[in-house]
Here is the input.
Amino acid sequence: MTMAVTEPAIAHRYITVLADLLRDTAVNDERGVTLSLDEGFARVGRAAREAHARGNKIMFIGNGGSAAISSHMAIDYLKNGGLRTMALNDAATLTALGNDLGYDKVFAAQLELHALPGDLIVAISSSGRSANILNAVDMARTRECGVVTFSGFSEDNPLRRCGDVNFYIRSGQYGFVEVGHLALCHASFDIAMGWNGSS
Here is the structure.
């Protein structure tokens, strides 16, 4: 006899899977060398502080849910962290550039105009295969910017090899990947801001 899964049981399982995925986050540097999650967070925090100290800025890019994460984190870095940040997802800008240049250029075109050597680009893509994100990272490199990436889905997604620090969630489910990315971004920021281990 098969017992039906009750709502509390499936909800608890969802949270458990998400927590396990976060604990199992893969982190590597630009050479593919594996980093601990703590070291990845430390490098991101250091890169953000150093960019600000030089007079540079942090720019977040992402599509859909990842765009929402970009906006959320840009505000937190600005308001709570006192760092120069922006999310490159203004609706009028994206539609104008998408119409005139193609959607695959909407972030690269903005970086071509805004990015300065020493800026930090945070590229967020669930699949790690979005052409507009990959093109933007290429542009960031030509502008001598630092790059941090967050991706998921396939282990061989190209974005996972593009950053100075790369965070990868081992899941093909949008919900887990997107919530995981937001949790990782927030954790990195909160720890850099001095989180003391309390709830």
Observations:
- The radius of gyration is 17 Å.
- Residues 150 and 181 are 6 Å apart (CA to CA).
